[in-house]
Design brief:
By secondary structure, this protein is an all-alpha fold. It has one domain. Helices cover about 90% and strands about 0% of the residues. It contains three helices and no strands. Helix 1 packs parallel to helix 3. The longest helix has about 40 residues. It is elongated.
């Protein structure tokens, strides 16, 4: 399941990155360069989350004797996910908004 999520985030990040590169060629500027690399930063955050959750899954397999240890591991996984996925999605959304604005402005000016 983690692998599927990582692949879907990779496809999303690649699509936004390619759109950003296309827009940066048409409308050069600092904002376009930043919007191009924001999805890559988001993907890096997601991959860090996957690595840490995978390590937690191995820990869960080793300590399955008691319910409190299971609860601590699940709570830890939720905390790790919130720390990494929220900024990742913010990177995706900011990049998407900047790319949409850049594309619409370019069409309005006839480029």
């Amino acid at each position: 399941m983690l692998l599927l999520g990582a692949v879907l985030h990779g496809v999303l990040a690649a699509g936004l990155h390619l759109w950003g590169r296309w827009l940066a060629r048409r409308r050069p500027g600092a904002w376009a360069r930043r919007a191009t690399w924001l999805p890559v930063v988001g993907l890096a955050l997601v991959l860090a989350d996957v690595v840490l959750l995978s390590a937690g899954a191995f820990e869960l397999g080793a300590e399955h004797e008691s319910a409190p240890s299971f609860a601590r591991t699940v709570a830890s996984a939720i905390n790790v996910t919130s720390v990494f996925l929220v900024p990742a999605w913010l990177c995706y959304l900011v990049s998407l908004a900047a790319l949409v604005v850049g594309t619409v402005r370019g069409r309005a000016r006839g480029r």
